[in-house]
Specification:
Blueprint (H helix, E strand, L loop, with lengths): L1 H32 L3 H32 L1 H10 L1 H20 L6 H30 L9 H25 L10 H28 L4 H11 L3 H14 L14
Helix pairs in contact: 1-2, 1-5, 1-6, 1-7, 2-3, 2-9, 4-5, 5-6, 5-7, 6-7
Length: about 250
């Protein structure tokens, strides 16, 4: 059972990196590709329908960690407390930018929230790399380390590339590139490589610190009915907002 839940945790974290990675990547590219207001609107419209569905994966990651690895939860929250707080603030800032940028029509208003999206995406991307470095050291080293910062930049670049590939798939030709769904899938796997590499190295540690078998059995009963709903919702989002005539349509809540 410990191996099964390790595989579930790995899939969830890799899925978050592969899916939320392009959202963060598009945010990172706003100052680069969004030189005009129209281009920024197109970029936000391209990723907006996927944001909430992709963030569900992070909620699932957190829930799995709290239930399956309770000791790891304490180490993460205690050892990485400043980093976790900073990442939460960046998450709130990024999402606030998505929610508020269209509430008023002034250029200064939109410019401020577009900057918030870009800054929040940068903070989250770098923060994830630093958190992965700390996890790779068994949370014994500070994430504010040259190698941690370097991994943060690697994750940032991978997310930016994934976001650029996503724009090429979702808005073919608009930003000078056209990508197929297969290429997008490959870039998603590449974006998930840091998470997969760290979890692969940490597998013995995680298996040793798993919750008791009885707890894992109860979690299995609780999760099984929810998993198909989560996957079904994800499939519905991708089918509904696939490239086409509605590529630049924003959901009503953005």
């Amino acid at each position: 059972m410990e191996v099964i839940w390790f595989a579930v945790f790995t899939v969830l974290l890799a899925g978050y990196f592969a899916l939320e990675g392009f959202d963060l990547g598009v945010g990172l590219l706003l100052p680069v590709l969004g030189r005009t207001r129209g281009n920024r609107d197109r970029m936000v419209a391209a990723m907006a329908p996927y944001v909430l569905a992709n963030e569900v994966w992070l909620v699932a990651v957190a829930g799995t960690m709290f239930g399956v690895y309770p000791l790891l939860e304490g180490e993460v929250l205690f050892g990485l407390y400043p980093l976790v707080v900073a990442m939460l603030l960046c998450w709130v800032l990024r999402d606030a930018g998505l929610w508020f940028r269209r509430r008023l029509d002034g250029s200064a208003w939109r410019g401020f929230w577009d900057a918030a999206i870009a800054f929040g995406s940068l903070g989250l991307s770098v923060g994830w790399g630093m958190a992965l470095y700390a996890a790779a050291t068994g949370f014994e080293a500070s994430p504010v380390h040259p190698l941690g910062l370097m991994l943060g930049m690697v994750v940032t670049l991978l997310f930016a590339f994934h976001g650029w590939t996503f724009l090429g798939w979702r808005t073919p030709g608009v930003f000078g590139v056209t990508r197929s769904g297969r290429v997008l899938l490959v870039s998603g796997l590449v974006a998930a490589l840091p998470a997969l590499g760290v979890l692969g190295g940490a597998m013995p540690y995680l298996l040793e610190h798993s919750a008791p078998a009885a707890t894992l059995n109860v979690l299995s009963v609780m999760v099984l009915p929810v998993a198909p709903i989560m996957l079904g919702a994800q499939i519905w989002v991708w089918r509904t907002f696939r490239p086409g005539k509605d590529a630049f349509r924003l959901p009503s809540f953005f």
